[in-house]
Amino acid sequence: MTVSATNSIVADATNTKSAPTATDTMNEAQDRFLKLLVAQMQNQDPMNPTDNAQVTTQMAQISTVTGIEKLNQTMASLSTAYAASQTMQSASMIGHSVLAEGDTMQLSGGKAIAGVELAEAADRVEISVYDSGGTLVSTNKLGGRDAGNFAFQWDGKKDDGTTAKDGLYYFAVTATQGGEKVDSTSLAVGKVDSVTLTGTGALLNVDGLGAVDMSKVRQIL
Fold first, then answer.
1. What angle do CA 203, 120, 159 make, to 5 degrees?
2. Rounded to an integer, what distance in angstroms lies between the CA atom of residue 96 and that of residue 90?
3. Which of 79, 129, 120, 90 is nearest to 217 (CA)?
4. What confidence tens digit (pLDDT) does each residue in 108-151 have?
5. What is the pLDDT of residues 165-193, one digit of tens each?
6. Residue 187 sits in a domain of what CATH number?
7. Would you list the DSSP string of 200-214?
8. Which residue of 42, 126, 161, 215 is surrounded by the most CB atoms within 10 Å?
9. Whole-structure pTM value
């Protein structure tokens, strides 16, 4: 048996392993390889023995296949454990309010809560509140804030001194540091009503925000 023929058989074994079946396991592939290696050594040409480097290369091939298979099994186990953990975490959030990307806030009884995410510290943060028709009704100066997430509250007072009616309002954030614009993200508050499990993870069904991926939640209130 020549080295090239053996390499071809080993390659076939490794290719078969890349798509394993119930009867074609990693251990079976290793057994086949060892049998092939022994057969090669027994049937080699005495005048042209197999080079040690070639044998080492073949052993490295099966070792690589084995290592990849074990890594795939480990990653599959980690993925399953992560999905189970995420499911438990998301279920525990039902009934809680969260901050997630959005530019709306619900005014009720003279109180509306929303949030902001700043990419860096700002010495001036201003919130502009608009009604459903797009009319500016209130401007709120929050002063300086550190980088990160924070929630704020609007008391429903309009710039003209009157009190806004309860309902849905929109807001925009303006943040600067030393006169330079600071990147900011508007965060809306919503209550988690339920959880939907998908093939890629859990989605929180948030009142007023719809389906929100767990990774999009900035803060739990």
1. 85
2. 10
3. 90
4. 999 999 999 999 999 999 999 999 999 999 999 999 999 999 99
5. 999 999 999 999 999 999 999 999 999 99
6. 2.60.40.4070
7. TEEEEEETTTEEEEG
8. 126
9. 0.59
